[in-house]
Design goal:
This protein is mainly α and 386 residues long. It has a single domain, classed as Up-down Bundle (Rhopdopsin 7-helix transmembrane proteins). It has twelve helices and four strands; from the N terminus they run αααααββααββααααα. The strands form two sheets. The protein has a two-stranded antiparallel sheet. Strands 3-4 form a two-stranded antiparallel ribbon. Strand 1 and strand 2 form a beta hairpin. The protein starts with 53 loop residues before the first helix and ends with a helix.
């Protein structure tokens, strides 16, 4: 026997109110396709059996729990580093900080899933709203991570290949905020539109024992396919194109430099018309070498960010493939790699990025006064602590 609402779609204000729609069904019930897309189902369906062993679910749960705790700590430290040092308050790091916020949200969503994975056949009523929120926010956070990586790649491409004047015209205080908003708006709109049109239904998935979508819904496969197919390949293509352009540009640049300047003689002083006076001047060769050192510094940062990008796209790859191909038997294990993506990024910053490494070590050692180029926030905090 099935009973479900036949009312219209819930308003935005009612999206997270599970009391607006109630579905009681058994394993033979056909769920409505266009009504109540945000309905929570499978809460107490004891007839369904999981395709994963209890030991496998415990392994996934412990792995996700450890990963999420590492990710929360690491991403908070990254955000603190950007907030406390002016040295890290660059245009590129606006997108890095945005990536850390999305990683932090992903790790926070992982915590409830790590607990729910252990539940055998039903979800406690007290966790219903939390599970619904996690199921809605998880694909959004994953999408923001992908688009943030693509935004970082575009930023590095313009910084390396364009003149500084053109770069500063593109990235201003007036344009950075809309860019960040768009990065969040695309996955939010995609997820909302799919759910509002009946493609997918948020629920506690009894097969996977995580907050995701209702596997009994006929459009469940299409929902996962569209999320993985839109939020992953697009940003990946943008990132690969941008770093390919950077690679070609750098090769051509250094090839021209070697042909144009096979040998350089650097002058440090020149004679002055007035006697006994020698005025130091910077020669053209010295100026070029200084610019080359600056350029190499930016290239090194770009290499480090490219490594971060590779990790960010490789770790979610198994999960995306499992979603698109409908490999449900492997999906739960792919979740480990998906959440690990959000924990690895701060570790890479600390290991590969010299400026992040120095400041993050100061934070971990509580040496606040040793943080280079302290921001106004840090100066205020230090003054209050005296």
């Amino acid at each position: 026997m099935a009973r479900h609402n036949t009312t219209a779609l819930p308003l935005v204000s009612d999206v997270f109110d599970s009391s607006n729609s109630t579905v009681l069904y058994n394993s033979t019930t056909t769920l409505p396709l266009l009504a109540d897309p945000f309905n929570i189902t499978n809460w107490q369906d004891s007839n369904s059996t999981s395709q994963y062993t209890y030991g496998g679910r415990v392994f996934v749960s412990i792995s996700v729990l450890i990963i999420s705790l590492i990710g929360i700590t690491g991403n908070v430290i990254v955000l603190m580093a950007v907030a406390l040092s002016c040295r890290l308050q660059t245009i590129t790091n606006v997108f890095v900080a945005n990536l850390s916020v999305a990683d932090l949200l992903m790790c926070l969503c992982a915590l409830p899933n790590a607990v729910i994975v252990l539940i055998r056949s039903s979800l406690p009523p007290s966790l219903e709203n939390l599970c619904l929120t996690v199921a809605f926010l998880s694909p959004i956070a994953s999408g923001v991570i992908m688009f943030s990586i693509a935004a970082i790649a575009v930023n590095r491409m313009l910084l390396i290949t364009k003149h500084a004047t053109a770069y500063k015209k593109i990235y201003t205080a007036c344009t950075l905020f809309p860019m960040v908003v768009i990065i969040w708006l695309v996955p939010i709109m995609l997820t909302t539109i799919l759910l509002a049109t009946g493609v997918g239904r948020l629920s506690y998935n009894i097969n996977f024992h995580i907050c995701l979508d209702d596997n009994e819904n006929p459009t469940s496969g299409l929902y996962k396919f569209l999320l993985a197919g839109i939020l992953y390949p697009g940003p990946l293509a943008i990132t690969l194109i941008c770093y390919s352009i950077i690679y070609v540009f750098i090769r051509r640049h250094f090839k021209k430099e070697r042909l144009a300047c096979p040998s350089v003689r650097i002058l440090t002083t020149t004679s002055s018309p007035e006697p006994n006076k020698a005025q130091p001047v910077v020669s053209i060769a010295t100026y070029k070498l200084r610019n080359e050192r600056i350029h190499k510094h930016q290239i090194q940062i770009t290499k480090n960010l490219f490594i971060v990008s590779c990790v960010c796209f490789l770790l979610p790859l198994p999960n995306s493939v499992f979603l698109m191909l409908g490999l449900d038997d492997l999906f739960l294990y792919g979740v480990i790699f998906l959440f690990a993506n959000s924990a690895v990024n701060p570790l890479l910053y600390g290991a590969r990025h010299p400026m992040f490494k120095e400041i993050m070590l100061c934070i971990l050692r509580h040496r606040w006064a040793d943080i280079p180029e302290p921001s106004r926030l840090l100066k205020v905090l230090l003054s209050r602590g005296k």
